[in-house]
Design goal:
The strands form four sheets. The protein has a four-stranded antiparallel β-sheet, with no helix packed on it. With 155 residues, it is mainly beta.
Length: 155
């Protein structure tokens, strides 16, 4: 592999392991003993994160220049999804309690999307760079962190 690799994630239900990196790199291993193999993508942008639904059927990849790619077939093929922003997207995180993905990144980019719909920006104006995200179940809020910290009630 000649690219910088940025995230490794394992999907517990399917045992697939995913690795994303620079130059549109996506590697997949089907189980703990399988070798990693490249998955072709419709981008050469640097990728930062992979997010997947509980069952592993829907995946999102995010990266530079507003890159958002979706797979609805377990990661066999990916299609671009418009974000309406040229900003870098850093996080794709599935929240089972909401049945939605949260997409976050640079320039205050915060969006929610059902697994198969176009992302919708969260209401409000957010500034900053978001690198980390959790769902706080007790308060039913999304907490994002980067160059600032925000707690947002879920819509």
């Amino acid at each position: 592999v000649l690219s910088t690799l940025r995230q490794v994630a394992c999907q517990p239900q399917t045992q697939h392991t995913w690795v994303v990196g620079d130059n549109g790199t996506l590697l997949r291993s089907d189980d703990a003993s399988s070798p990693f193999r490249p998955v072709p993508l419709p981008t050469e942008e640097n990728l930062f994160s992979v997010g997947f639904s509980d069952d592993g059927a829907v995946l999102f990849l995010v990266g530079n220049a507003g890159t958002l790619l979706r797979s609805t077939d377990g990661g066999h093929s990916f299609t671009p999804v418009p974000t309406g922003s040229p900003q870098t997207v850093r996080i794709a995180h599935f929240i089972p309690e909401l049945g939605e993905f949260v997409i976050a990144g640079v320039g205050g980019l915060l969006m929610l999307t059902k697994q198969r719909t176009i992302p919708q920006r969260l209401a409000g104006r957010f500034e900053g760079r978001f690198d980390h995200l959790i769902f706080h179940a007790a308060s039913k809020s999304i907490i994002v962190a980067g160059d600032r910290l925000l707690r947002l009630p879920t819509p």
